[in-house]
Amino acid sequence: MPKRRQQTTKPWGGRFREGTHPAVERFTASVHFDRRLAPYDIQGSMAHARMLAKCGILTRAEAEAILRGLRVILREVERGAFPWDPSLEDVHMNIEARLTRKIGAAGGKLHTARSRNDQVALDLRLYLRDQIQVLRRQVRELQGVLLARAGAHLDVILPGYTHLQPAQPVLLAHHLLAYFEMFQRDRERLASCLDRVNVLPLGAGALAGTTFAIDPHTVAADLGFARVAANSLDAVADRDFVAEFLACAALLMMHLSRLGEEIVLWASAEFGFVTLPDALATGSSMMPQKKNPDVAELARGKAGRVYGALMGILTVLKGLPLSYNRDLQEDKEGLFDAVDTAQATVTVMAELLRGLRFRPERMRAAAAGRHLNATDVADYLAAKGVPFRAAHAVVGRLVRHCLERGCAIEALPLEDLRRFSPRFGRDVYEYLTLEACVARRASPGGTAPAAVRRALRDAANRLKVE
Ligand code: ARG
Hints:
The protein is mainly α. It has helices at 22-28, 31-34, 38-54, 60-79, 91-103, 116-151, 172-197, 216-223, 232-237, 240-267, 294-317, 332-355, 360-367, 374-383, 388-405, 414-420, 428-431, 434-440, 449-464, and strands at 157-162, 165-171, 199-200, 227-228, 274-275, 357-358. β3, α8 (216-223) and β4 form a beta-alpha-beta unit.
């Protein structure tokens, strides 16, 4: 038998004859990370106290004392003056104990008709609701930068790639708008996730509801929740809204990572499509000549920790019987880290894009003389009646010939072209300029300037509607 420890001062101490083992105290405490929820905990407690008074469960005077005490505590939290006590386990018990110290017995009435189980679910939903809105605004800002930079580069042509091999010429604006679309879907996903976050779990009690005649709908209205949870067991046990947010954040980070990877490539000496402004690059402590794209690399690297948080919560949840289990305390650190990571990455990538200097001459040089118009030569012959398969074979031989001679297709005189197919005419040359190749791709969502101008207008409109 372990030595009897000092009688506990825990709110749940009544049933216990012994104090908590220090190792258990350390192991179970969460206040060092869940104190981040303090403003939301207080906000939720205030709404709860107002409802208890409204329903006649607390007197007006008791509720007033609670509200006053909580306001003082909120200021302490904001000033960094709150005396956090790890032996009080978590943010909820810290704040409640402090309240009772300040206002006396009425403080002990705040927890009427409530459990930490519905309380923590409430806090987390309030927190995440705020953070999703912050993140959506930041993504919107990033999209605005993409739009602005695309609109200013409607005449810049670069190679479009498949397999990272030069494929067909595209407008830089078109390339940038591809990322606009990814981030638009990210923002839509976050909005849809918010609908399911924005549900009030308070009133579920520990798991089965409460014997008090509470009115969760007034709490929902007070806190701006769209709905009240329909099932108390689900309300305290469910963290799928955390997993869903993390899935949205993981996709967002994946997009940021791909953008980061392209900036890394484009900033390399080999591509040279962009230069990084000094303020957005970093140097080497050893090699004086270096200027590194660390921001873009970290955007790529930080995707990993958000994926990790998603796997973490899915794993925590998969074997839990209903309803609340303490495992659920493991929902927070991964979520907090993912929120911080996604918000920081979006913000800094917007800055990076704003400051990036494009090098149109390098892009054009990479697009010229690399046979990016080979598809168009085949299309030209097909338009003149050659079956496309046969045209493809002709142009294949033509490209091989050019590769051997180290020249572009359009550099060959007409009589040379005619040796490959008699259907070639003088009009082929104007057909094969980079501008002509781009302009012909006027299908909806294509890279032709007319299509891209339409896409820009459409994107600006979608950005306006939130
Ligand atoms: N710190 C806990 C958590 O994060 C709060 C709820 C504790 N509930 C309990 N019955 N021990 O989940």
